[in-house]
Amino acid sequence: MFDIESIYEAKSVGDAVRALNERPDAELISGGTDVLIRLRAGKGAGRPLVSIHELSEIKGVELQENGDIRIGAGTTFVKITNSPVIQQYIPMLGEAVDTVGGPQIRSMGTIGGNICNGATSADSASTMFTLEAEIVLEGPEGERVVPISEFYIGPGQTVRQHAEVCKYFLIRRDSIDGWHGRYIKYGKRKAMEIATLGCAVRVKLSSDKKLIEDVRLAYGVAAPTPVRCHKAEAILRGRRTDDEMAVEEFVKAALTEVNPRSSWRASKEFRLQLIAELARRALADAVRLAGGKAADEIACWRSGSLAESDMADDTSCKATADSASCDSMADKEVCAKTGSASTDANRRSRTGEEEGGGRDA
Questions:
Q1: What are the E-state strand segments in 172-280?
Q2: What pLDDT shows up at residue 352?
Q3: Residue 246 main-chain phi, psi, to 5 deg
């Protein structure tokens, strides 16, 4: 049972804003995969809810005439993963949200809730950082646009005001054309797991595929909020894709820009190992997806595992690779070239056959 005072079904975004403005104690609910769990645990019990679950105006993925992509905040993870627009232009995002929980969670949870919860572990967050997403909010004073880099202000905290509703996310064409990327989630299980660490890398290569023209690196659970590593990115710009020294400089710089903590999931020291290793792996995959040749030493997971000394606290290095989708979209190319095992878990998740699940939105 849930201890709820009342639930109001908003008829529009404006109506939801009004209802929230009138009730400072009310809580916004969309998919409910986090809110209802908190209520069942007694957190915020007895509060009124304002539901935006049925609002079609905040759902769907749209390719706009100017090449930008608009993603409704109320769009579920499964709709994003299966969207033809996402699959064609930013498959990395579809694969990232396909690592959230299990099929039930992905059928109900929304990308708006995943971002607006403010959790550093949100599987969509680091990818959205590398996409330089813009967040459109509507409140009593009207609309405003917030770059995702300015959205998070602390653990579980964002700049969204109580009476504001997240309407949609905007991905600019400049962050789409010519870019390729990879998100890798590390967890102790392949499904139903909140990320121990998440790493997202996007690259844009030169026309001859030999140089890295631009690169973006972002992490989840590497700091109190999702974090972008600008210093590390600057090191790789203009360097050869197969420059092993440049990659190691890139990794070392990333380690200076993060601040992971120890928790029951993993120690700070292990997370620092993950931060370095996942950057190498995600970069190698992103370069290959873009048609380039990655440095040989960052393809160390071709055999499916690392030396025990390299990942002393890891029970299975292969779990990192397996936690990302390899059965669809552009990642087929990566799996074929690296010899990594195909991930059947995501394929099963779309048909409802996958067992287990986890909450991240």
A1: 179-186, 197-205, 212-220, 227-228
A2: 32
A3: -60, -40
Instruction: Residue 219: name the closest of 233, 209, 208 by CA.
Output: 233
Distance CA 189, CA 320 (A): 9
218, HSE (Cβ side, Cα atoms, 13 Å): 29
pTM score over 0.70: yes
Same-domain pairing of 278 and 189: yes
Q: Tell me, what's the pLDDT at 57?
A: 97
The label of the residue with tokens 């420059």 reads 243
**Does position 12 have pLDDT exceeding 90, yes or no?**
yes
Region 240-250: mean pLDDT is 97
Same domain (yes/no): 212, 277: yes
Q: Is residue 254 part of a domain?
A: yes
Sheet holding 27-29, edge to edge: 4-9, 47-51, 27-29
Gap between the Cα atoms of 314 and 310, Å rounded? 9
* Same domain (yes/no): 192, 301: yes
Closest CA to 10 of 1, 19, 2: 19
The single residue listed with the structure tokens 């109320």 is 74
Structural tokens at position 259: 């601040």
Q: Within 13 Å of residue 351, how many CA atoms lie on the same side as its CB? A: 5
Q: How confident is the model at residue 29 (pLDDT cuts 50, 70, 90)?
A: very high
Give pLDDT, residue 2.
78
Asked whether the beta carbons of 249 and 240 are under 8 A apart, the reply is: no
203 and 330 part of one domain = yes
Helix (H) or strand (E) holding 268, with range, is helix 268-289
Residue-number span of the structural domain to which 10 is assigned: 4-51
Is 194 within the bounds of a domain?
Answer: yes
65 and 91 together in one domain: yes
pLDDT value, residue 296: 53
Q: pLDDT digits over 144-183, tens only?
A: 999 999 999 999 999 999 999 999 999 999 999 999 999 9
The total of structural domains in the chain comes to 3
